[in-house]
Design brief:
Helices cover about 5% and strands about 50% of the residues. The longest helix has 22 residues. It has about 425 residues and is mainly beta. The protein has 2 domains: about 50 residues, no CATH class; about 350 residues, Methylamine Dehydrogenase, Chain H (7 Propeller). The chain starts with a strand and ends with a strand.
Length: about 425
């Protein structure tokens, strides 16, 4: 029913009400294009059909968006940049979308869990005397554009790692040259506040002069969001901290660290998807160490060490990064020098078995990223100035290159938005 009320000008007391009643037809006739006959379709069926088509279209559009890939270029001045690409999961192709400049030496970066913000290292003089910065950016939808929100001091130099907790309220940073770590609170708009926690590591280890002092190389939040672990290459320790994500404050855990093998040089670490195991890739000993993770106490207990290199390799090589497939079945680690990717199978108890060692298709494989729900592996060959894409065999874990590597200036870090 439709009602209309007509009012005389200047007199609201007089009105005329017109009521129209409309009953939709129970059936509607539509032509059959195959036979030319008219079909009688109940209106209730047509309404259901239109709703289903509309919802189907929305669902299709929702799932049609290809992954967005951010790749940082580790360089100073205008050569430093974060470039966004669109990844085609079917072909592994990377299509450039947007290049964000004004970020210098963005060695490492991370995307917030709500996918609205990106945090990157910003250093005018990487490893110099002055403290470096973490830059906060807003991600502009799926365009690949980044809008700078602000920058805050890392309170150290050669800032080489940044992570964000599960609630997106705390950003962590590791500083290599100065051997310290810091935590910064995230504001409501995604920008960063000044650091609220700072800890200076101390000590040395057996491989001098490389390990004459602390070199914090990564700082990772545990899956339960209660702890954070910093792999320190210079002192062969995994430093443990308790995290209060609401305030971004850290306190040393008890015990305060787990030891890595002497001279190993722990660099990056990653948790198994089941949250029970931690894997550390050792830059200097070219190996991966498996630790059991006690969720109640945050204690790490070493259980296995395995090489990333062929037994007959005699040259110089240094590990960099490692990643685990979402199903927890395969782990991949990079060798810079041997220029390869070590591929492992993970048993139910977390132990590693080396499957193969594949060429990285470029010099100095620096960073890895998984995409398409673990079906693709992206490798940033920093001195090789390219990014190689590999397809992962879901049954064997084997890698197969997809097309030619994409040219990128000094790619240091890859982050993927599904």
């Amino acid at each position: 029913m439709v009602e209309s009320r007509l009012l005389k000008p200047g007199n609201a007391r007089h009105s005329v009400r017109i009521s129209l009643r409309f009953r939709p037809p129970e059936n509607v006739r539509l032509p059959n294009k195959l036979t030319g006959e008219m079909l009688l379709i109940p209106m209730r069926n047509l309404s259901f059909l239109l709703t289903a088509l509309l919802l189907g279209s929305v669902t299709t559009l929702t799932h049609a968006a290809d992954p967005l890939v951010f790749i940082s270029s580790f360089a100073s001045g205008t050569n430093g940049a974060i470039t966004a690409f669109q990844l085609d999961p079917a072909t592994g192709g990377l299509k450039p979308l947007h290049r964000t400049t004004g970020v210098e030496n963005p060695f490492f970066m991370v995307v917030s869990h709500n996918q609205k913000f990106l945090y990157s290292i910003h250093a005018k003089s990487f490893g110099g005397k002055e403290p470096e910065h973490v830059a906060a950016y807003a991600i502009e939808g799926r365009t690949g554009k980044l809008t700078l929100l602000n920058r805050q001091s890392t309170r150290g130099t050669a800032s080489c790692y940044v992570d964000v907790d599960a609630t997106d309220k705390t950003v962590l940073v590791a500083n290599y040259t100065t051997g310290n770590i810091a935590s910064l609170p995230v504001q409501a708009d995604g920008s960063l506040g000044e650091s609220v926690s700072f800890f200076q590591h101390s000590g040395s280890s057996v491989d001098l002069p490389r390990q004459k002092g602390p070199n914090a190389h990564s700082f990772v939040v545990s899956p339960d969001n209660r702890f954070a672990f910093a792999a320190d290459l210079g002192i062969d320790k995994i430093m443990g901290y308790r995290l209060d994500a609401a305030t971004a404050k850290l306190t040393p855990n008890e015990p305060p660290f787990a030891k890595a093998p002497p001279g190993a040089g722990p660099r990056h670490l990653i948790f198994h998807p089941n949250g029970k195991y931690v894997y550390v890739i050792n830059e200097m000993k070219n190996s991966v160490t498996l630790f059991d993770y006690a969720t109640a106490t945050g204690m790490l207990t070493e259980r296995q060490n395995i090489s990333t290199l062929p037994a007959d390799f005699t040259g110089k090589s240094y590990c960099a990064d490692l990643k685990i497939t979402p199903d927890g079945r395969f782990l991949y680690g990079t060798n810079r020098g041997h220029d390869s990717i070590a591929c492992y199978r993970l048993a139910d108890d977390g132990r590693l078995t080396l499957l193969s060692i594949e060429p990285s298709l470029g010099r100095g494989p620096q960073n890895l990223a998984l995409a398409a729900n673990g079906k693709l592996l992206l490798c940033a060959n920093m001195p090789g100035k390219n990014v190689a894409v590999f397809r992962i065999d879901a049954q064997t874990g084997a890698l197969k290159s997809v097309g030619e590597p994409v040219a990128v200036n000094s790619p240091a870090c890859i982050r993927v938005l599904p």
